[in-house]
Amino acid sequence: MSPTDDGAIVLGPGEGTEHLSPVGDTLVWKVGEEATGGAYSLHERAAPPGTRSVPHVHHELVEAFYVLEGAFDFTIGGRAVSGAPGTFVLVPRGVAHGWTVHGDAPARALVLFTPSARRAFFEGLADLARDAGPEGPDPQRVLELSREHGWT
After folding, report:
1. Phi, psi of 122 (to 5 degrees)
2. Is 70 helix (H, G, I), strand (E, B) or coil?
3. DSSP 3-state helix, strand, coil percentages of the chain (rounded to 5)?
């Protein structure tokens, strides 16, 4: 849905731009730099059991998670944190972190970045995931894309 005349954005359940990730989860982009002036971005992450992110660092962004369903295990600066529904996790810029979907059920979370993550990063990841064979995308290409957007 596009903004209304007054600039408001209203999205119903499941609405937004969907991006596949190379690790097997789906991101639904709700809002980002184009509507917030770069202040923040918000997406909904849905991931099957066992899905895990690569440990990484955001040098320019703060990332926050709010668990909606299922369970995530987070590692933040070497510390393990369990995330059941209702758990909120804030990762400051410059802190290494990662997550894993824990248990036998899929998990969902809202993920907020401030300032806004760039939509182009998630579009690039989706392109790499779509074009990859069964072995997954070339890790070097993922690393290059991440570095272009300030993530290591």
Report:
1. -70, -35
2. coil
3. 20, 40, 45
80: helix, coil or strand?
strand
Q: How far apart are CA 15 and CA 110, in angstroms?
A: 14
Task: For the beta carbon of residue 98, count every other beta carbon within 10 angstroms.
Answer: 14
> Which tens digit of pLDDT belongs to each residue from 3-55?
556 879 999 988 998 888 877 889 999 998 889 999 999 999 999 999 998 89
Per residue in 98-116, pLDDT (tens digit) is 999 999 999 999 999 999 8
Of 115, 140, 114, 137, give the one whose Cα is nearest residue 126.
137
Instruction: Identify the CA nearest to 48 among candidates 28, 75, 72.
Output: 72
Domains and CATH numbers, the chain: 17-148 (2.60.120.10)
* Gyration radius (Cα) of the chain, Å: 15
Pairing state between β 26-31 and 17-20: antiparallel
Instruction: Report the Cα–Cα distance between both ends of the chain, in Å, rounded.
Output: 33
